[in-house]
Backbone:
């Protein structure tokens, strides 16, 4: 159904429901109709608007602290989902189990419009207060929801099209919701599928704390899907099923209320001891499965699985395949870590620095210890010090009782990964240098220094040596963290891009193949977003292929369908003589074509607005001197 037809159908349903008091069956999905009926029964009036109550800054800070682990586990998916949806000018939203907005990431222009309808941190979007909306209704229905335009209960919300999925913990309890919201006038064809995949990844991470004192069985019918967000996870405590994910329950036809009442031998004919020895699991009904056992207790002793290579699909959604040269670098970098030397990973945004860091952690002698990742660019400057170093009770207003240890102490015995270290504020750089030199952490608010022992991996897309010269990065810290550097190449530099994409597509176990035309266009693309961009495209095509339909050229993102003009003599000369000038000329040409609108020009070029501003920041006027740059 087109956007216009959908809009007319929903308006007809609203007239029938809100004005005539009749049930508009067939005009809107049953989930929307049920939500409208719930809202009306609770006394909400569509014409009067929602009751918006904003938390104070202190209340919001306490709510964020209560949901600290959820926010940390969800951060990679918020950023990856935003990268997937950046061309549609959307925002990605994380809420708690009651629908309270905790974090938002996305297009600043649309975020401003969303804030006008209170779609911002500190506002609760539960259905009981905010009416039919994707977040609140997904939490009530406990299923992914799309609420588009006028399907929202309240009239002011019809500017939004929202796609949300509830996040369930290993016991089936609501932990929160993930939402992608954009303008209702724009078609968001694959948004709900992308949100569902992101939630699968988050729910998989929620099992991280269980593998040391429970028997965790990871299982699937297809061996290629083990280690991905699609694997089934079943957790047993003394042979009783105590936790699971949705995929694990579905494999055996179970429901959430079966937890606590099902025993291991009611599901598997293969013993736990045999699984521990590497025997493939067999279901009680003879299902031939593939799987492995993580963690568990044997004769009262906790058994920790041997280190294994990190599956990059678990962290990025598509595998990052290391070529021979990269494997050699990985092995050498692991030896450096084992010798006590820090490792610095350098490369463009999206080349897989965190995935490489996780593989490095798995390959070094600290693989049994924690891997603590800190995105120095994502943490608010006002919170980064307390997040890193921890704090004592009463260190500041709103501080948690009994304090908090901080991420540096959590990395003790393992690996600390400082991503985008080039964005760390200068005052914190000096404190970090002191920790690395003295190997002890002093929390905020005083207290004694606590010894720490961790290996350090840093990553950046910036040229840190240039940042040192410009005074943005301390030279003493630079020489401390850059003792061994690994350059990760851009995706476009791969020698056999077609072969690489084909291998990754087959590893995703899609039911349909990619046509020669699609594969050719993928191989011709420059991939400015590297593996992150490839992840977004292949995840989208994988969702399309779920019904057996082979993805076509029309299913590719718009920026991949635009034909590049053949290079002229002048552009070749410009490229040879001054690449920066050629880049600026292309950006200025895009700005002229878009009437000076920066947002539109950035979308036309397939880059972010910040990249455009960074390259043309010195130009106070639009191309041709017609006036200031327009924000869009």
Residues:
């Amino acid at each position: 159904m087109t956007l216009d037809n959908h809009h007319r159908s929903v308006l007809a349903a609203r007239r029938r429901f809100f004005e005539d008091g009749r049930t508009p069956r067939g005009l809107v999905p049953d989930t929307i109709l049920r939500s409208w009926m719930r809202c009306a029964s609770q006394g909400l009036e569509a014409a009067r608007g929602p009751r918006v109550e904003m938390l104070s800054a202190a209340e919001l800070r306490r709510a964020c602290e209560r949901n600290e682990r959820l926010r940390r586990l969800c951060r990679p998916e918020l950023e990856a989902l935003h990268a997937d949806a950046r061309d549609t000018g959307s925002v990605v939203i994380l809420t708690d189990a009651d629908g309270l907005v905790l974090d938002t990431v996305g297009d600043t222009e649309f975020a401003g419009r969303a804030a006008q309808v209170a779609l911002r941190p500190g506002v609760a979007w539960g259905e009981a207060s905010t009416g039919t909306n994707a977040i609140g209704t997904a939490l009530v229905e406990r299923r992914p929801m799309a609420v588009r335009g006028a399907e929202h209960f309240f009239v002011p919300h019809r500017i939004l099209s929202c796609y949300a999925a509830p996040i369930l913990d290993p016991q089936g309890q609501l932990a929160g919701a993930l939402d992608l919201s954009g303008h209702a006038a724009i078609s968001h064809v694959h948004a709900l599928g992308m949100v569902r995949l992101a939630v699968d990844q988050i729910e998989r991470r929620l099992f991280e704390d269980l593998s040391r004192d429970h028997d965790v069985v990871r299982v699937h019918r297809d061996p290629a899907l083990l280690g991905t967000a699609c694997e089934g996870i079943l957790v047993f405590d003394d042979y009783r099923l105590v936790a699971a994910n949705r995929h694990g329950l579905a494999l055996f036809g179970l429901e959430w209320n079966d937890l606590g009442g099902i025993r291991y031998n009611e599901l598997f004919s293969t013993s736990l001891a045999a699984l521990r020895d590497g025997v493939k699991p067999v279901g009680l009904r003879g299902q031939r499965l593939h799987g492995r056992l993580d963690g568990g207790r044997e004769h009262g002793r906790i058994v920790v699985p041997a280190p294994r290579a990190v599956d990059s699909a678990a962290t990025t959604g598509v595998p990052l395949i290391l070529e021979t040269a990269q494997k050699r670098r990985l092995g050498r970098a692991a030896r450096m870590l084992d010798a006590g030397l820090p490792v610095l990973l350098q490369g463009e945004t999206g080349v897989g620095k965190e995935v490489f860091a996780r593989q490095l952690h798995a390959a070094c002698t600290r693989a049994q210890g924690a891997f603590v990742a800190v995105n120095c660019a994502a943490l608010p400057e006002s919170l980064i010090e307390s997040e890193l170093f921890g704090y004592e009770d009463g260190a500041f207003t709103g501080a948690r009782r009994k304090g908090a240890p901080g991420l540096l102490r959590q990395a003790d015995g393992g690996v600390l990964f400082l991503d985008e270290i080039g964005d760390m504020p200068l005052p914190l750089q000096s404190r970090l240098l002191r920790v690395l030199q003295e190997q002890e952490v002093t929390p905020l608010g005083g207290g004694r220094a606590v010894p720490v022992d961790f290996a350090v991996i840093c990553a950046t897309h910036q040229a840190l040596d240039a940042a040192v010269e410009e005074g943005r990065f301390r030279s003493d810290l630079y020489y401390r963290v850059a003792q061994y550097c690994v350059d990760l190449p851009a995706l476009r530099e791969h020698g056999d891009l077609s072969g690489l994409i084909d291998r990754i597509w087959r590893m995703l176990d899609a039911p349909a193949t990619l046509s020669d035309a699609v594969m050719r266009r993928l191989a011709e693309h420059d991939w400015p977003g590297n593996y992150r961009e490839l992840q977004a495209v292949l995840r989208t095509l994988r969702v399309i292929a779920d019904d057996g339909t082979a993805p076509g050229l029309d299913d590719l993102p718009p920026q991949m369908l635009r034909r590049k003009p053949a290079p002229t003599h002048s552009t070749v000369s410009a490229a040879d003589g001054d690449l920066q000038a050629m880049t600026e000329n292309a950006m200025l040409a895009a700005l002229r074509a878009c009437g000076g609108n920066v947002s539109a020009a950035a979308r036309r070029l397939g880059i972010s607005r910040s990249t455009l501003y960074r390259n043309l920041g010195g130009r106070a006027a639009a191309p041709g001197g017609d006036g200031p740059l327009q924000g869009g």
About this structure: Residues 57-201 form a domain with the Beta-Lactamase fold (CATH 3.30.450.40).
